[in-house]
């Protein structure tokens, strides 16, 4: 039987932790994206750049929102778990009358809430600097949840399997950051050489960025095959993470 009170308690704990450490969890990513957008606004004012018939800044703004949400979704879950291992408080969760799958679900739900907070705050800041508007709010939420689920699952895996900050930062530097930069956040596929386009063709995260960006366009086109590919990848990520938590007797104290 699902323990809703335990799930609620973990979600409340993580949200309280998120707001109590707002300098690191909220202000830092917002400042990073603000610096990004200011730099690109300055560049565009000098060179009058445009991509796919829109201004360069309007093109990259949705990608910047996803990039920071993805990074924070990974960091929040992995940092929480590694820190709890370091101080020994993870044992309290494991000894409580709650299953490990319920712990995973709690972490992912809280990550979704945090992801929306960061995304909305970024949108508000961007709206003062550039012309940005959401035309399809339903798919905006849909693709935002997909990103949080994938990177949240990754953070949950890293946080539960490893015990050191070195490993946590290694995954961030050599997987999360390259995946963000190779997802079409800062460029359009049409400008890539043909022999390197396969990097994006087989990258499901590229399609997430592509469709999320389309939510800011009044001509949104939904392609079923690509979205099935995205959902299959997200479902596989969740199944692998759930398996790690279910069979974690060899890695969890």
Mean pLDDT: 86
Helix content: over 70%
What share of residues are in beta strands? under 5%
Shape designation: globular
Radius of gyration: 19 Å
Structural class of the helix and strand makeup?
Answer: mainly alpha
Counting structural domains, the number is: 1
Task: Enumerate the spans where pLDDT stays under 50 for 5 or more consecutive residues.
Answer: none
Helix count equals 10
Distance between the termini: 24 Å
Largest sheet: 2 strands, antiparallel
Strand arrangement across the biggest beta sheet: 1-2
Order of helices and strands: HHEEHHHHHHHH
Number of DSSP-assigned strands: 2
Tell me about this structure:
The protein is mainly alpha-helical and 253 residues long. It has helices at residues 4-20, 22-47, 56-87, 90-95, 100-127, 137-161, 165-181, 198-201, 204-214, 224-246, and strands at residues 50-51, 54-55. The mean pLDDT is 86. α3 (56-87) packs across α9 (204-214) and α9 (204-214) packs across α10. It has a two-stranded antiparallel ribbon. The chain is 75% helix and 2% strand.
Task: Show the helix and strand layout.
Layout: H1 4-20, H2 22-47, E1 50-51, E2 54-55, H3 56-87, H4 90-95, H5 100-127, H6 137-161, H7 165-181, H8 198-201, H9 204-214, H10 224-246
Antiparallel strand pairs: 1-2
Helix pairs in contact: 1-2, 1-5, 2-3, 2-5, 3-5, 3-6, 3-7, 3-9, 5-6, 6-7, 6-9, 6-10, 9-10
């Amino acid at each position: 039987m699902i323990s809703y009170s335990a799930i609620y308690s973990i979600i409340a704990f993580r949200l309280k932790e998120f707001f109590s450490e707002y300098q690191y969890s909220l202000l830092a990513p917002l400042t990073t994206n603000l610096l990004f957008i200011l730099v690109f606004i300055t560049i565009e004012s000098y060179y009058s750049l445009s991509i796919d018939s829109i201004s360069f800044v309007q093109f990259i703004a949705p990608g910047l929102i996803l990039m920071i949400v993805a990074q924070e979704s990974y960091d929040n879950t992995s940092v929480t778990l590694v820190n709890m291992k370091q101080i020994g408080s993870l044992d309290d969760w494991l000894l409580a009358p709650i299953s490990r799958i319920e712990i995973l679900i709690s972490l992912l739900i809280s990550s979704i809430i945090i992801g929306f907070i960061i995304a909305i705050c970024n949108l508000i800041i961007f709206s003062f600097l550039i012309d940005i508007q959401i035309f399809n709010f339903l798919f905006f939420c849909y693709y935002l949840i997909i990103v949080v689920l994938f990177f949240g699952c990754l953070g949950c895996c890293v946080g539960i399997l490893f015990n050191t900050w070195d490993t946590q930062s290694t995954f961030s530097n050599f997987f999360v950051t390259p995946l963000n930069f190779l997802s079409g956040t800062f460029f359009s596929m049409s400008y890539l050489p043909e022999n390197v386009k396969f990097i994006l063709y087989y990258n499901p995260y590229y399609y997430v960025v592509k469709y999320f960006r389309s939510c800011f366009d009044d001509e949104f086109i939904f392609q079923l095959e690509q979205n099935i590919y995205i959902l299959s990848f997200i479902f596989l990520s969740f199944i692998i993470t759930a398996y790690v938590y279910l069979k974690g007797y060899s890695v969890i104290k």
